[in-house]
Structures are given as structure tokens and as C-alpha cells.
Amino acid sequence: MSPEDGTILTADAAERQSRSRLRVIDCDVHHALRSPKDLHPYLSKRWRDHLDTYGHRFPVPFTDGSPYPKTAPALSRTDSWPPNGGPPGSDLAFLQKQLLDRHNVEYGLLHLLAPHGMDQRNQDFGAAVCSAINQWQYEHWTQKDRRLKAAIVVPGEDAQAAVAEIERWAGNTDFVQVSMVTHTIEPLGRRRYWPIYEAAARLGLPVGLHTSGYNGHAITGGGWASYYVEEQHNVAISQQALAISLVCEGVFERFPALKVVIVEAGLAWVPSVAWRLDRHFDRMRDELPHLTKKPSEYLRQHMWYTTQPADEPERPEDLRRIFDWMGWDRVLYATDYPHWDMDNPGQSIKLRLSEDEQRMIYADNARAVYGFA
């Protein structure tokens, strides 16, 4: 949401500078609970009492705060707090006015970051939370504005419960993908998660992987970062590791219809990761006899990437070369509303695009991935 001089755009300035001539599909919109009690109507008495007594217990040494460093309240724009109270993203009418209407959004794909059932120490409670979140999304968001589409939130550390939740909502057009956290107990390519991929592929649902989750470990291989700028950058590194795990463990070979969308991790890293993987594969392919293609081919065929946070090389045309290598059909537009570094349509890609390229990135690629008519 910030222009090049680093100032935060006001709502009026954003409207003047970024009203899109295109109808856009926004692949990363964050909605929020106003209160944990919003889930009470969808939880049994046992789990309501559990939530009120014990709260959400994640596998981290913190009880009331996230270990993720912050430089802005709720990581959000200063103008994104609804006038009637509640956190950013918690008021549908305000989200409609500030995002959907202002930026001509045809569809907005919802990603709820917290609380998440996949992170719960008590896995039975986690499954109940996921089920409650999905019902809440359906009743309070997607049914009230048909432009909004939700992800099926699943308790990924309990594959059987996750599959049941996917099957519960599959076929309901309000839900267009499966959402798993990315900071998991084991790398996401491991076989404990394969039943989830099998269900998603079988039912024609992409798996959306937005950086999120608490597994008790830092997202780097060297420990906790000291500064927010480190943490912000390391998000992309953690998603690279996720992509490598999916490829090398053979997930895409086993489930050839599976689609995976990497959300909010940038995309300029994709070619270099693919080149290095291919080189290692050429030298050590006997270790991976289950792969029938080069790693780069799996990345090209099975993975998509959202634009936010947009990569901005000093020479804009370098971004064109990256898109050329990845394939222009792999790039999905996203705002990351209401976060402070939100990218609005008028400023998201610092590259001169043809009309065909604009249509692909801002709408048509997402329409193909998610099957929108």
C-alpha cells in the first residue's frame, strides 16, 4: 500500500491512484474474528468451555502473544480499523468499501491467519476449531457477499480429520481451496500429510499455502531472527524449503492432479531454486528414483505464486525475464489486505504490461486455477 516515497496512502489517495480498469481477482484477503467468542455458536459446549478456560495453546513458549515480530499494530494499514470497532478485516461492510468496491474486485480469496486449528496442541480441539471456522466463514462472509471465496481450513497434523473436513465442504462453490499452515511439525512433503493432498487432488481443490503457523521452531535453519526485516525476508526462504520438500518427496509424482498455490512469499526466487535443484538432481538422481521429471518441471506444472509482496528489481524488465521463465500463467495477483505492505492494483507490479498480460495476472490465471466461470 506504500508508494515509493515510503508514505502510507490514505483511503482517498489510494482510490485516486489505484482504481483498476480491470476486474481483478485478489488471491490474498485477510478477514478476522472480532472476538474468540465468534466461534461459540459453532462449537459444542465441551469445546466452548475448553476455549474459555484454556484458550488456544500453540507449541510455542508464549501464551498471550505471537513470537512473530511486528512493526505495525496488527501488521495492518493505519486506516484499516473499522469505524465500529474490532480488528482490521473483521467488518464485512468496511472490507467491501475499502477493498472490494474500491479496487473492482471480482473475487476475493479469504485467508484467516489466526486462530488456526492446525496449530493446536490438543488435536481434537484443533479439529473442532477448524470446523467452526469454516462454518463461520460460510455464514458470515461468503454467503453475505458472493465475491468472497473461502479456503477450507484443516487440522493438518491430523490427516484423517483434515480429509473429513475437506469432504464436508467439497462441492460447495463458496470454498475454492484447502488451507494448511506452512510451519508444520515436519516438512510438508512428508507422507503424514499425503492423505490431505490425495483428497484435494481427487476433489479438484488447490492447496493454498500462506505462510503461517507455529511449530515451536524458528522459520530459519539458524534460529530466531533479531530483526523484523530478517523475519520478513525469511518467510520467502521458508516457502522455498516447502516447495523443495513437495518436489523431492514425490508429492507431485504421486498426485499428478495436485495444484499448490504459494501465497505471500514473493516469486523471484523460483527460477534460481529450480536451477539449483536441477543441477543437484542431475548429479544425484539415483537418490530420487521416484521422480520421473526434473524438479523444475514439477514447479512449472504444479505450483502458482501470488504477487504480494511484489518483487521490485532495479531494472523492471528483469521481472519480465523471471515471468518468462516461470510462465506468465503461474502468476496470481494479491493485495494482502489489510496489511501495512498491501499492494493495490495500480502499484503492485513495476513493469509495463500489455493488456493481455494484465488480464492474465490480475484475473485470468486465478480464474483458471480456481475454476471460476
Q: Determine and state the CATH class.
A: Alpha Beta
Biggest sheet: strand arrangement: 1-2-3-4-5-6-7-8
Low-confidence stretches: 1-20
Structure class:
alpha/beta
Write down how many β-strands occur, each being a DSSP E stretch of 2 or more residues: 8
| Rg, nearest Å | 20 Å
Distance between the termini: 29 Å
List keywords for this structure.
single chain, 373 residues, alpha/beta, TIM Barrel, eight-stranded parallel beta sheet, 12 helices, 38% helix, globular, disordered N terminus
Give the helices and strands, then pairings.
Blueprint: H1 11-18, E1 24-29, H2 45-54, H3 92-101, E2 105-110, H4 123-142, E3 148-153, H5 159-169, E4 175-179, H6 194-202, E5 207-210, H7 228-248, H8 251-254, E6 260-263, H9 270-284, H10 295-302, E7 303-306, H11 316-326, E8 331-332, H12 355-370
Parallel strand pairs: 1-2, 2-3, 3-4, 4-5, 5-6, 6-7, 7-8
Provide an overview of this structure.
- This protein is an alpha/beta fold.
- The protein has one domain: TIM Barrel (Alpha-Beta Barrel), CATH 3.20.20.140.
- Helices cover 38% and strands 10% of the residues.
- The chain is built from 12 helices and 8 strands.
- Strands 1-2-3-4-5-6-7-8 form an 8-stranded parallel β-sheet, with helices on both faces.
- Strand 2, helix 4 and strand 3 form a beta-alpha-beta unit.
- The N terminus is likely disordered.
